[in-house]
Amino acid sequence: MELFSIEAETASLLKDMSNEELCSFAELHDDPAIGGQIELYIYTCFLLFKKSVSTEHLERAAQRAEGWVAVTPTDHPDRIRRSRIFDMMSACVHHRSIPESTILTTPGVTQRMGEEPAVDEIGIQIRHLSHQAERLAESYQQTGRLEDLREAVTIMELALELGGAHIEPRMLSNLGAMLGMRFDRTGSIDDLNRAVDIASRAVDTTPQDHPDRAAILSSLGNSLGTRFQRTGSIDDLNRAVDVTSIAVDITLQDHPDRTTILSGLGYWLGTRFQRTGSIDDLNRAVDIASRAVDTTPQDHPHRAAILNNLGNWLGTRFQRTGSIDDVNRAVDIASIAVDTTPQDHPDRAGRLNNLGAMLGTRFQRTGSIDDLNRAVDVASIAVDTTPQDHPGRADILNSLGNWLGTRFDRTGSIDDLNRAVNFASIAVDTTPQDHPDRASRLNNLGNWLGMRFQRTGSIDDLNRAVDVASMAVDTTPQDHPDRTSRLNNLGNCLDIRFQRTGSIDDLNRAIDVASIAVDTTPQDHPDRARWLNNLGNCLDMRFQRTGSIDDLNRAIDVASRAVDTTPQDHPDRAAILSNLGNRLGKRFQRTGSIDDLNRAVNFASIAVDTTPQDHPDRASRLNNLGNWLGTRFQRTGSIDDVNRAVNVASIAVDTTPQDHPNRAGRLNNLGNWLGMRFERTGSIDDLNCGLSSYKEGWSCHTAPPSVHIRLARATANILALQREWGESSQLLEEAVKLLPTVSPRSLNHTDKQHMLAESAGLASVAAAAALNAGKAASHALQLLELGRGVIASLLMDMRGDISDLKREHPGLADEFTSLRDELDSPSDRLTPTISNDSTSSWESQAKRRREADQKFGELIAGIRTRPGFERFLLPPAEDEIMAAADPDPIVVVNLSSYRCDAFMVEHNQITVLELPGLKMEEVQERAQDLRSSRATGSFHITPLLGWLWDSVAHPTLNALGFNDPVSDDKWRRVWWIPTGLLSQLPLHAAGLHMRGSTETVLDRVMSSYAPSIKALIHGRRVPIRESAGPFTDYALLVAMRETPGLATSRILPFAGDEVEMLKSLCRSLKLGSLTPIMRKDNVLQHLQTCKIFHFAGHGQADPADPSQSCLLLEDWKTSPLTVGDLRDHRLQGNGPFLGYLSACSTGSNEAVRLADEGIHLVSAFQLAGFRHVIGTLWEVSDRHCVDVARVLYETLRDEGMTDIAVCRGLHRAVRALRNEGIKDEKEKDGKARDATLEFSGSRVHEMANPHWVPYIHFGV
To answer: DSSP of 961-986, one letter per residue?
Structure first.
């Protein structure tokens, strides 16, 4: 009696007792107090009943069991077992109450009136109980009444408890089958495990030649296969196939059970294909299922189930091979299976679900909307007829969600999509964590969430889509055939998120997983074309981000293969053609190949022509066609092309729903083509229509911020032509306010750069428009502050002084610090590959950063509600800006296409001076000339400095009252903040540098630079490190006299001299000195505690990604010390005083579209926490570096280590060098401190010594 938990020794003693001894034992334990004694009493009474057929003791056992269950808490771990004991007792009492006339009798067995039952009566009763249980199980199969199944299980368990020697293998097998059915209905894993155990016992106790052995083996196979479906154990599945195969082999050809057993074998073979991808298993499954159908009579009660299985495997084979015959047969057979299943049959819902799957699958191949509508209808009926607590309900809900989502994809019905997400969510929520189908359901949910983002623009949906798709991949075994599709879907979600946020990590991972999906998909698989298409999309996106022509060529190659392997009549062909057209068009833009452009137009046209009129993707394909027609117009001037571009773009807009997030982008494109036609024809109607398109696009609230910014600029440009400055200014101001949302804190810095590059110059045109609209100079200046240096501003917010907050609200300060530390970690370095980390763990890191960013924003908003903190982390107000100019003025030089101005900030006023001599076009030309002349070795510096004096510096200094040269050594100071490309030019060196001339900046003021006024304020608020005493602070000295691995200028003869000079001065500066190991990690470690950092060596500017600009140490090839490394360090708590970067181009940012972000080595040192930084705009002379550094450090020695002394020291050094106070000789060393340019051979025109020009000071 396995239900009871009685010690084996005690059970053995009780079994050996006589009836009298048992009665006495029971009497002694008649009033037990604890659970163990209660169970012992019930056991003893039931044993007495079995031995003596004593109804009295059976009733006592039942009564005591009922009371025992009643006092057991519902959450007690043993309640289920105790309830089953009570159920067995109750069933036994119920059976004893059945009239004798209903009890089955066996011929030859009799019983005289008044006698105790004969010994064989036990066998009769056992068989009666077994038959009664079987009838109840059959009733359940017909009606679905769970009560019948539960009673059947209880009665069969009772029969086995009572049976002893009368137990037959068939009874065990039947109990296993009943437990399996109950698992199917309730999902109880205990039932399933018991079903396998009992079925195994049935097989073990059945003789090899027993006629029931095949059926019993088949039943065991079913239980094992079912357990595989629940647990994913491949061993169970293999055993299921093996034992069912044996069952088939030992079943006679004409045996009535052969068809059922064959069908079961086909089912498990098909299931094994789904797990392993073995096409042999699938073909055998179809073959065996077909034979099972052929040998099943038309009126057989199981024929519908056997047909259903055959339909499943035909549909599955279609998905693997693409055979349209298979899917047509699958639909026909699944329809017959449903039609021959009674309306009230419990399996009808499952067969409806399968029919829906076949219809939906055929739609995906043929595009028949009737099939898709039928799929939704039958799946809906399947859901409606499935009980809420049925374990199969999750699967049916999942299927309904799939066909609703697919219908949305075809019709654009947002209601279908919302229902798809809802049903898929419920399916996931009701699927156990360890269920093998959970990954599939997560995958589907991710698909529909990603699709809803594309329709609504909800970033929450997109993040959830990536999250659940990652979990789907992680919970799918490496060798599972569905892993490729789940990788593909994850890649899609990551690609979509990259397009929305700009995260290059997302895009690289998308390419990784899409590549794996393609590589692990057989060449002849019908889904391979889709995977190739998606991989092409991702590669194209990376080309757009990085400019890699290899990525673009690969994208075209995989897109071409996708087209070649897609049947002409396949509904996906139009999308694949459209994508191939896009790739070719982009290659034209890169290479100028007119053949590529013509093919792009051709493919885009075919894609539009083969897309149904009512298809929701038609607008997208029209938009693409318009783009390439417009591009071809730009190349050929064909008026027909631009007319067609306008027409198809108009239709694309008209067929895009008002609330669709892509509507704004399509309106932007329409406006572009109208604008081009206006330029060609002069039609004012086109100009007005273009303006209307841009304005309407700006009003689309679901569009991404980057698209809104693009539309605002386009609209403002037309309004500027019409002199509508008020409206233009308002739009640009709103666009500037969107910039922080384009580059959230959670995004890594490289991604922020890319996103902000799209909005280059926005703040400058907004400020110019504001001035033209008559707004105050302070208002325009605040727009510049808000829209420039966005990345640095976010870092300054997190790294600023919060001592006031700590004092007033320590709890808020602690929360601020915690979130700041999460966000200020170097996220750029948290990117694992798909092979060495789970996707969901990587996504969880990104998710934590996004959540921290959201909480940080909410916390800042909360802090601003506290008295005294209303302006916490807001851009500086007008009074704060003026306070920053006390005692010396700040000059912000704004460069825009509308107008150019100098904002002059003094301690008591902010004024603006328009600079009519400064033009955007000329600045672009001068900056290009400067770069070119440096590269070619013909350096024209004098004209540039003279032009800067005339157009910017002279009028500005005059307006500030700096009209005359300084003669008494009482120097005033100006902080220069140039915008745009002006940041590449030396405003501090502007002037007419001829002997005897004083018309120069250098002779009127000392110059310092700042990236922004906010940066200046931030730097001043960082507390100065208190020295513990003389020589407790030290200078960190790095001299790279020889840079290994450098092709040119490997040796810098004077780098060692420069550092030795400083080392000799350290004692007089009251500093110690330290020379570290010349490797990145060691240098970064010592930066934490130094007072001065002096680097003499090579610098390297990266024009493509300024975050990768670096100082070259010994390990520069494998681990360069980059802007990104320095920016990610936070030294504000112990900020060093001075960083002296005696290397080339350390203050240069040659990435034109990131000019306003000020991303260079000098600014990186400032962001890390250095109070002052000396750097250079371009190449510097190795020999003169020694003398410039010496003059600066001698000034610090003589005047003290003060803020003004740093500026004065550099000013003295460069004036002396200019005035040839430092002797100028022709360079004998032939070296310049640049890793890529050798400047010493340059021919410097019209100035004897230009080596002083590139030196700059950034500091407070």
So the answer is: T--S---SS---EEEEEE-GGGGGS-
**CA–CA gap between residue 710 and residue 708 (Å, rounded):** 5
Tokens 């060596």 label which residue? Answer: 1097
Q: What is the pLDDT of residue 570?
A: 87
Burial (CB < 10 A; 0-12, 13-18, 19+), residue 835, is: exposed
Taken as a whole, the chain contains a residue count of 1260
* Tokens representing residue 1159 in the block: 């991303």
Query: What does DSSP assign to residue 1076?
Result: -
Q: Are 1113 and 1078 in contact (CB under 8 A)?
A: yes
Choose between 682 and 3: higher pLDDT.
682
Question: Cβ neighbours of residue 879 under 8 Å, at least 6 residues apart?
Answer: none
Other beta carbons within 10 Å of 207: 9
pLDDT for the residue 649:
97
Residue 1087: both structure tokens together: 């930066």
Question: What does the pLDDT look like over 1156-1180, one tens digit per residue?
Answer: 888 999 999 999 899 999 999 988 8
Which residues lie closer than 8 Å to 469 by C-beta, 6 or more apart? 442, 443, 446, 447, 450, 486, 489, 490, 493, 839
pLDDT of residue 472: 95
CB distance 710 to 672 below 8 Å? no
Which residue, 842, 824, 840, is CA-closest to 832? 842
Euclidean distance between CA atoms 247 and 222, whole angstroms? 11
Report the C-alpha gap between 878 and 880 in whole angstroms: 5
Strand partners, 976: 891, 1009
Q: Tell me how far CA of residue 58 lies from CA of 86, 151, 152, 580, in angstroms.
A: 11, 18, 20, 80
> What's at 966, amino acid-wise?
V
Q: Who's near 973: CB < 8 A, 6+ residues apart?
A: 888, 1005, 1006, 1007, 1008, 1204, 1207
Reduced 3-state DSSP string for 370-434: HHHHHHHHHHHHHHHCCCCCCCCHHHHHHHHHHHHHHHHHHHCCHHHHHHHHHHHHHHHHCCCCC
| Residue whose pair of structure tokens reads 């392997």 in the numeric block | 565
CA distances from 784 to 263, 443, 912, 1159 (A): 75, 45, 13, 17
Residues 584, 585, 586, 591: is their CA dihedral positive or negative?
positive
C-alpha distances in angstroms, 909 versus 443, 731, 1067?
61, 27, 44
**Rounded CA gap, 551 and 508, in Å?**
12
* Eight-class DSSP state of 1024: P
Radius of gyration of the chain (CA): 41
pLDDT higher than 70, residue 1243: no
pLDDT at 1017 over 80: yes
List strand residue ranges (DSSP E) for 1056-1199, in order: 1072-1074, 1092-1096, 1099-1100, 1110-1111, 1121-1122, 1138-1142, 1172-1176
CA distances from 221 to 230, 239, 281 (A): 14, 7, 16
427 contacts 441 by C-beta, under 8 angstroms: yes
- With b meaning 16 or more CB within 10 Å and e meaning fewer, what string describes 585-603? bbbbeeeeeeebbbbbbeb
The amino acid at residue 1121 is L
CB 552 within 8 A of CB 543: yes
Distance of alpha carbon 879 from alpha carbon 861, whole angstroms: 22
Q: What is the mean pLDDT of residues 268-283?
A: 90
Q: Are 171 and 159 in contact (CB under 8 A)?
A: yes
Q: Report strand pairing: 1243-1244 vs 1172-1176.
A: unpaired
Task: Please state whether beta strands 1072-1074 and 1034-1039 pair in parallel, antiparallel, or not at all (unpaired).
Answer: parallel
Contact of 1076 with 1038, CB cutoff 8 Å? yes
Tally of CB atoms within 10 A around 786:
22
Percent of the chain with pLDDT over 90: 58
Write b or e for each residue in 997-1010: b if 16 or more Cβ atoms lie within 10 A of its Cβ, otherwise e.
eebbbbbbbbbbbb
